[in-house]
Amino acid sequence: MSFYLALLLGLLSSGHCAGMCGGLIGALSTGSTAPLRSPQQNQIHLLLINLGRISTYVIAGALLGYLGAEFGATLNIPQWSDNLRKVPAVLMLIIGLQLILQREDLFNFLEKLTAPLWRKLQPL
């Protein structure tokens, strides 16, 4: 029974995956370097992107599952979850305002805040 529920959940969530990951994979596979790659190199590139994406989900899920099992009783997980959901909600509101007001400078504070981290990650 639980297998069929998991299968149904996977099928129902495929729309989310197509909307979120589809655009990302489309952008990465048709980027400026894609014409310079052979079809085989492009397939390897896409395989590595997907392996990285899936590995990231697996590691994040395992880490959060471990933390939830280890500290779930002492930490107020529902409260943390509520607080963590507020961050992307505020960012989406800022993006919406930026689009409505047609201003590109609303994210300058965020870009300045994350610039040191980006400089370290960019070479990787």
Write down the overall geometry.
extended
First CA to last CA: what distance? 44 Å
Number of helical stretches of at least 4 residues? 5
Indicate the percent of residues in helices: over 70%
- Order of helix and strand elements from N to C terminus: HHHHH
**Proportion of beta-strand residues:** under 5%
Structural class: mainly alpha
Largest sheet: none
Low-confidence stretches: none
Mean pLDDT: 78
| Rounded radius of gyration (Å) | 19 Å
Strand tally is: 0
Oligomer: single chain
Name some characteristics of this structure.
124 residues, 80% helix, 5 helices, extended, mainly alpha
Describe the structure.
This protein is an all-alpha fold and 124 residues long. It has 5 helices and no strands. The chain has helices at residues 2-12, 14-29, 39-71, 77-101, 108-121. The longest helix has 33 residues, at 39-71. It is extended. The N and C termini lie far apart (44 Å). The model has no long low-confidence stretch (mean pLDDT 78).
